[in-house]
Fold this sequence. Notes:
There is one protein chain. The chain is α+β, with helices and mostly antiparallel strands. The protein has one domain. The chain has helices spanning 3-19, 35-42, 52-61, 65-71; strands at residues 21-24, 29-32, 77-89, 92-109, 112-121, 127-133, 138-139, 145-147. The strands form three sheets. A four-stranded antiparallel β-sheet has the order 3-4-5-6. A two-stranded antiparallel ribbon has the order 1-2. α1 packs parallel to α3 (52-61). The longest helix is centred in the first third of the chain and has 17 residues, at 3-19.
Amino acid sequence: MSKNLGQIRLQAKEIYNKIGVIHCPYFIEQISFTSEGFNHIRYKKARSERHPKVQEIRYRLIKFAPEIIRNSKTLQEHDIQKLFIEVEHNNRKEKVLKDVQYFGFIAIIDGWKVKVIVRQIGNGKKHFWSVIPNWKTRKSIDGKKSYENYTGALELD
């Protein structure tokens, strides 16, 4: 990890910790900014760390997430999956199959097209899951991919 990334992460964590909860007009309820959301920015599935440049972009976009949620009245993406989620039961952790919903909100702020993803496990509370630049894979004139960074799968992004 570069010294610069560590500093960017600390600054992002300070901003993130001050957010707490944000009212979302689309859901007419509060969205929590939990440690899970912040950790998802750093790690992919199975706790493998994201590329440092990808982390840096996401850390820099965190400041836009509250504004996007606070002003979102229209849902742009929605996905439901059945996933094994780790829960604590009788003082031990076990994996339980649950419905997990992902909601995507997109906005253009300060020249960035940004997507914020909100997650809900079962009937639980909705919480911030991720923030990404809303880029798509583009093909250059010769047909080769010029840039690909995000999968389009709300769970992973």
